[in-house]
Amino acid sequence: MTSATDTAVRYCGRLFTGKEIGRIRQLITSDRKLNRAQLSRIVCDEFNWLRPDGRSKEMSCRVAMLRMERDGLITLPPPQKGTGNGKTRPRLTSISEPQEAVSLPAGALGKLLFRPVNTPDDSKLWNELIERYHYLGYKPLPGAQIRYLVFGNSHLLLAALGFGAAAWTVAPRDRFIGWTAQQRKHNLHLVVNNARFLILPWVTSHNLASRILAGIARQLPHDWQERYNYKPTLLETFVEQKRFRGTCYRAANWTHVGQTQGRGKLDRQNRYSLPVKDIFLYPLDKHFRQTLHCQA
């Protein structure tokens, strides 16, 4: 949530009026048999919350309602699955245990294969790897998203990547793009956030990270087009300064545009310190500014 008043709150890039919040409460209490997925579909239909391709923004709606519940605005029905509330961690199994060490130059790993996560088995593996080895751990990616498993020669698993919805407002990014608030609202879906990037800890390969970033920048627009019927035009990522220097992003020609303020979205008085993160951007189209400025 980025702002709150007596009448409206913003979640996942959409402003919900007090009347709409009340309607969501009414839907929850009027039919106790509705599960969270069914509820999100009804809310999207009633509020006409759609993706650019005309499909319902069900995932964004589910994330928005989880945040509403977190903020005490609604009480959702119990989740039907263990991870349905976004809080339960994946149960770690043998599929994500450390493997034999790999130490090769990036070129010796062969052509990289970026496999979108499309099956329950791949999803379970991705979730476990991120939970076990990524410092941020696992949580569902917001909005439109694609997860990848990255392989080298002989189906050798090397890395895991996750891309999801962009941050609603980031001052250095927005200055770099040069768009207005209305243009951002209209075109934010064309910006995709690299939310997770994990090279497995038993893999040591000089220049592999920058090679992965270069390869995914070529493939992701086509996969996104196939899944969501439009191509993104800009990638963003946030790198925690105290942990990483962003070397691989710089080597892959991502542009450093500034840093976050080190406070939460609702912290207007700088009371709660959060890690400062460097902001990197990568245009997927040389005409990205023209596209992001369009309001047609």
Compute the separation of the termini in Å: 28 Å
Sheet with the most strands: spatial strand order: 4-5-6-7-9-11-10
Shape: globular
Q: In angstroms, what is the radius of gyration?
A: 20 Å
Taking all residues together, what is the mean pLDDT? 88
Record field, number of beta strands? 11
CATH class of the largest domain reads Alpha Beta
Commentary on this structure:
- The protein folds into 2 domains: 8-70, no CATH class; 95-293, Gcn5-related N-acetyltransferase (GNAT) (Aminopeptidase, 3-Layer(aba) Sandwich).
- It is built from 9 helices and 11 strands.
- The protein has helices at residues 18-30, 36-47, 58-70, 120-133, 171-177, 181-187, 208-228, 247-251, 288-293; strands at 8-11, 14-17, 102-103, 113-116, 146-152, 156-165, 191-199, 203-204, 234-240, 255-259, 277-283.
- Strands 4-5-6-7-9-11-10 form a 7-stranded mixed beta sheet, with helices on both faces. A two-stranded antiparallel sheet has the order 1-2. The chain has a two-stranded parallel sheet with strand order 3-8.
- The protein is globular and about 60 Å long.
- The two termini are 28 Å apart.
Short structural description:
The chain has 296 residues and is α+β, with helices and mostly antiparallel strands. The protein has helices at 18-30, 36-47, 58-70, 120-133, 171-177, 181-187, 208-228, 247-251, 288-293, and strands at residues 8-11, 14-17, 102-103, 113-116, 146-152, 156-165, 191-199, 203-204, 234-240, 255-259, 277-283.
